[in-house]
Amino acid sequence: MRTAFRQRLREEDEESAFISMTDMTVGFLFIVVILLAFFATQIAPKTEDLVPKQLLEQRDQQVAELQELLLKTQKGGDIVLDLSQKNFKLTVELAEARRAAGLSPEDSLVQKLHELRAEIDRLHRLLKPMTQDNPIEHYNRTVSTELRELLESIRNRIMTADPKIEVTISDSNDALHFTGDGIFAPNDTRPTRAGVARLRTIAGILADEVGCFTFGGPSEVATGCNPSATVIEAVQVEGHTDTDASDLYNMTLSAGRAAKAFGVLVSAQPDLLAYRNLRHQPVVSVAGYGEGRTIADESQPGGKDANRRIDIRFIMYAPVDEASIPLGVDDLQRVRKRLLGDAP
Fold this sequence. Notes:
This protein has helices at residues 2-42, 47-50, 53-100, 109-131, 135-161, 193-210, 247-268, 303-307, 332-340, and strands at 167-169, 175-179, 232-240, 284-288, 309-316. With 344 residues, the chain is α+β, with helices and mostly antiparallel strands. The longest helix is centred in the N-terminal third of the chain and has 48 residues, at 53-100.
């Protein structure tokens, strides 16, 4: 029994010694671990090498954004500077405008604008009656439009009937120009044989066209062909020359050619002599102007040919007051009586 007890004591002593050795070993290993950790911190790589790649990319993006923001800030500063310069320029211009308008620094620019607008409105009110359509002007515009259409109709019909007849409409839209060289021999008042034929062609078309704008003859003003009741006052057969020779010679030549042309026209169409205006006066007449009314520069090619010409000029009736404006074809008799003194 005592022997067994001693045996157990010996085992307990051996176990205690083993536990002490274990604790020492564990402590030693702990110290070694601490030392290794210390030395590891001394020889550790740079922080960047331990940062994941995704974090580095995020850092680079943030740096780029900061650089871009810095650039925008710099540009914004340039814009602010530019705006400041423009503001200074506008301030100077505004000051000059105020001085030009006679405004002192104390005067209100807004008030001045209100005053100017009020003045503009007042002027508009004064001008309004002047800009309203005047009945006489309205009638005259209508007459001008219909005269242009009449001239175009006559010209087109003549050119269709005989393309060799050189005819144009005047710049003032009131006459037909016929080149004299196609009708007369040089320095001669008598039409050539071809000129006579061309004048007869012109006469037939002229008589047919002017009938609806005159009284007497085979046709008179009618609503169907003349709804605006425009009336021809006169049709002048005019002679013109170039500037060669003397004034007296050219006047005689132009008057002679106009008279000969008139003779051929009325011989071919006697009804031309029957046409009358509102005052019951003959419509067709003759005039010679010599070199006094040239239409082209004679220093340029074709200038003299253009000036040696026969014109057929149309003068339209123009009312002198509103009471003399025909309100339609049926009102022309009233206007005729008024012009002749037979009506108030």
